[in-house]
Design brief:
The complex is a heterodimer of chains A (572) and B (697). Chain A is of the alpha+beta class and 572 residues long. In chain A, α7 (284-298) runs antiparallel to α8, α9 (316-335) crosses α10 (350-362) and α9 packs across α13. Chain A has helices spanning 2-12, 100-112, 140-146, 181-188, 226-238, 252-257, 284-298, 307-314, 316-335, 350-362, 369-382, 387-391, 406-420, 429-441, 452-457, 460-463, 467-473, 504-507, 520-552, 559-569, and strands at 18-28, 32-41, 44-48, 53-57, 61-67, 79-84, 89-94, 154-157, 173-176, 198-202, 209-213, 244-248, 274-278, 340-343. In chain A, a hairpin with a 2-residue loop joins β2 and β3. Chain B is an alpha+beta fold. In chain B, a hairpin with a 4-residue loop joins β9 (122-127) and β10. The radius of gyration of chain B is 28 Å and the shape is globular. Classes of the chains: A alpha+beta (572), B alpha+beta (697). Chain B: Keywords: Cytoplasm, Sarcoplasmic reticulum.
Chain lengths: 572, 697
């Protein structure tokens, strides 16, 4: 039975390679050793068992190690140890006889890290078909038009259409109307990796904007650049803001330290009409270590008696708090009519977190299922968050210092917001988890590569399928039934440890002791919705039979129920 | 509203002084005596970050401290949840926890000895329901300020006698009994017990009624005995009862001495004292400073761990009853503190009846009121300083906390809501209800009788807390009902055919029956010999591995968890670290910084309630047309709770408490962020991309 299920999945994913081993023990940290078979395809690793199926996409594997050697004696001490990117480890015990381990290890290593072996990523092999083409969800021009752009103060620039100005930016940029293409080129010389300040979002009423960029190249000598200074002042002028606020996401000390490598921050005397605020968010290395600590306390077993203090010692939620409170400050500034510029060092990690979260707070469109996809496509994918480096898709170098859970941290922040405002988001928790799963899965092209220019060169849009194709072809399971659209409201979450909580359904989902049931509220609500529909239908039928009844025989009573009906139809 | 710049230093003086006559006060309880009154003071509001305030008058009666604002009350959003006895600016005297005086910017705890001292410039009152009031006395004439300060301090800090408790003057003048809509079984008569025995199909019989008088000590008014036992002299009652239990052939018996395995009531008191401090927040700065180490602070108080231990113990007892078919005798020195907690929890886990509103109230009556929990001493209603023999301890609150954990984990299993539990915990400190005023049923009857004689009138009529209409109108009471509660009838239809014989047998063991009767030393000899006798039968595990009891019940929990969840069957709590939560509604409701405007769980419960009432309207419509076939079914839908929440989108997370009028749409921006992160290793100072060099231009 289970094998047929397995086979069905093979076909579905167009299996190019498969390997089956019959005598494998999966050492489950919760249920002890389970005997079973292993199926490895170029997409996934499976161990079907009568009660239990382990199903792991190969690309989620970050590290494979051999455990035990020829001289290993103890039970189940010889096998493979697999570390995954999604908060779990797998351990398989194998028979020492034969060379089964060598084979399995070899194949796993090859297909889990295809890029290190000159093989293509799975997304390029998969030929899944969906009703909708997810690549159409984000069209930059449409999105800017939705925001009311261009207008008399802001223009669309095609200066980067061949990635000539900045190779990590998208082709279409929105810049101040008053700034010429030549100005932009000169500003680019003063910004790290030429990531000049460009518009992310504009407030429809007060015309305040969120700009994003990288750090200025001030350096040890405290260099200044008149063009950059003038450019920021043009941004300030655009809506008559008396003072432009620059949010530097980094801690003050780090910003200072960056001067040594040529970077830095906007000095007070150089930028007269700007105020600089540091948001104290730490760098990618700190975040990586924090998540590592978190994994230690939740997998395989949850720390019990000192849960809270061990959670605190990971600092994970404190980092979440800092990111959220930074975004709150940005959103608050903008909604009170002041334009802001947000940057960190390169403007693709912390900057993306801050701008996208602030936009989520300010603009209810991004809280819809499709709007959120646009937000991700825009602020993260098109503006060059380095997904390939941060996740390490298909790359064997598990200790790469560039890897960091920045996007996961952002999704966690979004989850914290959905938790605090359960009616404000059209998508549900399941949607966020699916997004995170496919962040690693390599089944879709959406999160592959570091920036648009590289994506173009690999023809990602034509050769792979978008994650949004899967999502938008059947949205029911991703929709939050409590969603109540409310357009004008700015959502300010409370960035206090009192309200922040660990996302148990994601980080501890592999632990069977944590019950993963559909939330009873949601279930009851859906039941009631169904009941309401049933009653309405019944009433309609009654109304229908009444009217026929009335035409056939003139009963005097027939009029009164009809009144009820008309009265009742209005609320629905 | 007058603003008070710089913490009260340089502000516009109030241009007028308003004296409010008692008659203006509303809602005034006409049996209150006014003692101190008429002092213009400034009450600081916590509504936003600035230290603003409202001018008004501070009054002190024999029931409450009351602040009457000079401002005409704003047309605020209709307050749905109003307590009829005291308003948002009233503090029942019994509810006052501590009073602080601010002298030259320094906060000092006011004790009895300090009354003669100089009057403080600011008075801060911490309440037992976790409200914090700050009154600035600098605008008041000095002798007035002194008078009101001393009056309040005197009323709140002096030990009192039981006779002076407000309940008696209330009972003496209150109107005849308010009708109870849903009767709570009070367990104060033999009939109630008989009824309960019938309900649980207990193999027990009820013994005589009068022995409690004879011994004049706290005992069950009516107690239950196993059937083989004959009525007789009360000497050796204990021994014979236990023998009878032990020798009942059906079950074996295990003994659990709670004093050996659970924290003492002093530990509980200490832990709660530490715990509550973190919710009594004077200002925004304190709030954000304490936010930094929030989790470890919470953990260090040990309060959540005590809750876990109690639930853990209850699960162990359930395991014995359910899995091993063994009777359990739980005991502790007085048998009326943790015994009450554990036995009530066990019954909630085993018996869905106790998860209904009336069932739960009956349970509290049975296990706590009839079970002689010393409410008067434990709540320290009389401010007795002699901690030795009155040791105060929030044992009942601990029980409510445990129940809350169950409610939030298995919401559809409970008919009552979180709000109900919060209100119940507040009501402990409202000195009107007989429920929480006495140490025993005996004390209640004798005191009431004496009081009635003293007042030369008929029997005093002291309401039980279950007469909710004394505090809330019908609309507000709807919030006590959990809209998620899964209908018993509906469920039954699905599983009607499933034989439940085994479970019935388990239900027939109300552990109350086996609870050791209380009072120090009284039965000591008997219990000692019995302990010896039973020691051999003890579950070795309880004794052998006191350090890892969690592991022991883990398997039991996991087996239960693997079965499909039946909200009307056995219910066990998950005790893993992340599952134990803070009772946010109770503890955070008055803190403005944590209020989520338009969010929080209430946002969805109110939508649910709205839909429920729509469905009910439709059902009614269909019923009216009398074409609906299944009449029996139509009776199932309960009256619509929370019909009041049509305008729900602007409710805050602290609903239905803390009505915020001054909603500035400003977010709370955390301060003191950086020192929170003790990231000092080399990683923090590293560059994001170390391996790439930024091109210098």
């Amino acid at each position: 039975m289970t094998i047929t299920v397995g086979v069905a999945q093979f076909l579905y994913f167009l299996c190019l390679f498969s390997l089956v081993d019959k005598d494998v023990m999966y050492i489950c940290p919760f249920n002890g050793a389970l005997k079973g078979k292993v199926f490895i395809t170029n997409f996934r690793l499976m161990e079907p068992d009568s009660t239990f199926t382990l199903d792991v996409p190969l690309s989620v594997i970050s590290r494979i190690e051999k455990m035990g050697g020829a001289s290993s004696r103890g039970e189940n001490s010889y096998g493979l140890d697999i570390t995954c990117k999604d908060m779990r480890n797998l351990r398989f015990a194998l028979k020492q006889e034969g060379h089964s381990r060598r084979d399995i290890f070899g194949e796993l290593f090859k297909y889990a890290f295809p890029l290190s072996h000159g093989l293509p990523l799975f997304a390029f092999l998969s030929q899944e078909k969906f009703e909708e083409n997810g690549w159409n969800i984000y069209k930059p021009m449409d999105e800017f038009r939705r925001q009311g752009l261009p207008n008399e103060r802001w223009r669309i620039s095609f200066i980067n259409s061949t990635y000539e100005l900045c190779d990590t930016y998208p082709t279409i940029l929105v810049v101040p109307f008053k700034a010429t293409e030549e100005d932009l080129r000169r500003v680019a010389t003063f910004r790290s990796r030429c990531r000049i300040p460009v518009l992310s979002w504009i407030h429809r009423e007060n015309q305040a904007v969120i700009m994003r960029c990288s750090q200025p190249l001030v350096g040890m000598s405290g260099k200044r650049n008149k063009d950059d200074e003038r450019y920021l002042d043009i941004i300030r002028e655009a809506n008559g803001t008396p003072k432009l606020t620059i949010y530097d996401a980094r801690p003050n000390v780090n910003a200072v330290a960056n001067k040594a490598t040529g970077g830095g921050y906007e000095g007070e005397d150089a930028y007269q009409n700007a105020e600089l605020v540091f948001l104290d968010i730490h760098n990618i290395h700190v975040m990586r270590e924090s998540l590592k600590k978190l994994k230690d306390i939740v997998y395989p077993n949850v720390e019990e008696s000192h849960w809270l203090s061990s959670l605190e010692s990971t600092h994970w939620l404190e980092h979440i708090k800092l990111v959220l409170s930074g975004a709150i400050q940005v959103a608050d500034k903008v909604s009170s009519g002041n334009s802001v510029v947000v940057h960190c060092s390169d403007g693709w990690d912390r900057t993306a977190q801050l701008t996208s979260l602030a936009m989520l707070m300010l603009d209810s469109y991004y809280r819809t299922l499709r709007g959120f996809q646009v937000l991700l496509e825009k602020e993260w994918i098109s503006f060059g968050h380095k997904f390939a480096s941060r996740i390490g898709h298909g790359d064997k170098n598990h200790a790469d210092q560039d890897r960091s859970p920045i996007f996961l941290q952002f999704i966690d922040c979004v989850w914290q917001m959905t938790k605090q405002f359960p009616t404000a988001f059209e998508f549900n928790e399941h949607f966020l988890i699916v997004v995170l799963d496919h962040l690693y899965s390599c089944r879709f092209g959406t999160f592959l590569y570091n920036c648009e220019s590289i994506r173009d060169s690999h023809n990602v849009r034509t050769k792979t399928v978008s994650l949004w194709s899967l999502i938008n072809s059947s949205t029911t399971s991703y929709v939050n039934p409590f969603f109540t659209p409310e357009s004008s409201r700015v959502l300010y979450p409370v960035a206090s440890m009192r309200h922040l909580e660990l996302w148990v359904n994601y980080y501890i989902r592999w632990n069977p002791r944590i019950r993963h049931q559909q939330s009873p509220v949601e279930q009851r609500y859906k039941e009631l919705l169904a009941l309401r529909d049933q009653y309405l239908k019944k009433l309609e039928e009654l109304q229908l039979s009444d009217s026929t009844h009335m035409t056939n025989s003139s009963t005097p009573n027939a009029a009164s129920p009809n009144q009820h009906i008309t009265h009742l139809q209005t609320p629905f | 509203m007058l603003s008070l710049g710089g913490g009260g230093a340089k502000s516009t003086k109030p241009s007028f002084v308003s004296y409010v006559t008692p008659e203006v006060l509303s809602p005034r309880l006409d049996w209150e005596d006014f003692d101190e009154e008429r002092n213009p003071v400034l009450k600081h509001t916590q509504d936003d970050l600035s230290q603003r305030g409202i001018f008004g008058t501070l009054l002190c009666t024999n029931f409450r401290v009351s602040f009457v604002s000079d401002e005409t009350p704003l047309e605020e959003m209709t307050q749905h949840f109003k307590n009829k006895l005291y308003g948002e600016n009233d503090i029942p005297l019994m509810c006052v926890d501590n009073i602080y005086g601010v002298y030259d910017e320094k906060k000092k705890l006011i004790t009895k000895g300090m009354l003669k001292n100089k009057c403080p410039s600011k008075m801060i009152i911490h309440c037992k329901d976790l409200r914090v009031f700050q009154f600035c006395l600098t605008y008041t004439k000095e002798e007035d300020a002194k008078k009101i300060f001393q009056g309040i301090a005197h009323h709140c800090l002096e030990p009192k006698s039981l006779k002076c408790v407000f309940a008696f003057s209330y009972a003496a003048s209150s109107s005849p009994e308010v009708q109870r809509s849903q009767r709570t079984v009070m367990f104060d008569s033999k009939e109630d017990w008989t009824q309960e025995m019938k309900r649980t199909k207990a193999n027990l019989r009820i013994v005589g009624y009068n022995f409690w008088m004879k011994y004049g000590c706290a005992m069950f008014k009516a107690s239950t005995l196993p059937v083989p036992q004959e009525d007789g002299l009360m000497q050796g009652y204990m021994e014979r009862m236990l023998h009878a239990v032990a020798h009942t052939h059906l079950y074996s018996l295990k003994l659990e001495d709670l004093s050996e395995t659970l924290p003492t009531i002093q530990d509980i008191q200490q832990s709660y004292n530490k715990f509550k401090q973190f919710f009594l927040i004077d200002n925004s700065t304190d709030f954000w400073v304490s936010d930094v180490k929030w989790f470890s602070t919470l953990e260090n108080t040990g309060w959540l761990d005590i809750i876990r231990q109690c639930l853990q113990k209850a699960v162990e007892v359930v395991e014995c009853l359910e899995k091993e078919n063994t009777n359990v005798l739980i005991m502790e020195e007085e048998g009326s503190d943790l015994c009450c907690v554990i036995s009530s929890l066990v019954q909630i886990m085993l018996d869905p009846h106790f998860r209904t509103l009336t069932g739960f109230q009956g349970l509290v009556q049975k296990e706590w009121v009839a079970g002689c929990h010393a409410f008067l001493d434990r709540c320290n209603h009389l401010y007795q300083k002699d901690k030795e023999c009155h040791s105060p301890s929030p044992v009942f609150l601990l029980f409510l906390e445990c129940v809350w954990q169950m409610v939030q984990q298995h919401s559809p299993a409970f008919q009552f809501s979180e709000t109900y539990l919060t209100v119940l915990s507040d009501s402990i400190h409202v000195p009107i209800f007989s429920t929480f005023l006495f140490n025993s049923a005996y004390q209640r009857e004798s005191t009431m009788k004496a009081e009635a004689q003293h007042l030369q009138r008929g029997p005093l009529n002291c309401p039980a807390v279950w007469d909710w209409s004394v505090q809330f109108d019908c609309k507000a009471q709807e919030l006590f009902i959990n809209p998620l509660y899964a209908d018993k009838l509906k469920q039954d239809k699905a599983i009607r055919k499933v034989p439940r014989a085994k479970h019935q047998r388990q239900l027939s063991l109300p552990s109350s029956a086996f609870k050791t009767p209380p009072k120090k030393g009284f039965f000591k000899d008997e219990t000692e010999s019995l302990k010896k006798m039973l020691r051999v039968k003890r579950i070795s595990r309880w004794m052998a591995s006191p350090d890892s009891p969690a592991a022991a019940t883990r398997e039991f929990y996991e087996t239960w968890q693997r079965r499909p969840l039946d909200y009307h069957g056995l219910l066990l709590p998950c005790l893993d670290g992340p599952a134990m939560r803070l009772w946010m509604q109770r503890y955070l409701r008055w803190i403005p910084e944590v209020q989520i405007l338009g969010g929080g769980p209430v946002a969805i419960t109110s939508m649910l309630a709205e839909l429920l009432s729509q469905v009910q309207d439709l059902r009614r419509e269909l019923d009216m047309r009398s074409c609906w076939e299944t009449e029996a079914e139509s009776l199932q839908l309960r009256p619509g709770p929370l019909a009041l929440t049509r305008t729900s989108l602007r409710l805050s997370s602290s609903f239905p408490f803390a009505s915020n009028r001054n909603w500035t749409f400003k977010p709370a921006i955390p301060t003191s962020l950086l020192q929170s992160l003790m990231v000092t290793d080399r990683l923090a100072s590293q560059e994001d991309e170390t391996n790439e060099v930024i091109s210098l231009v």
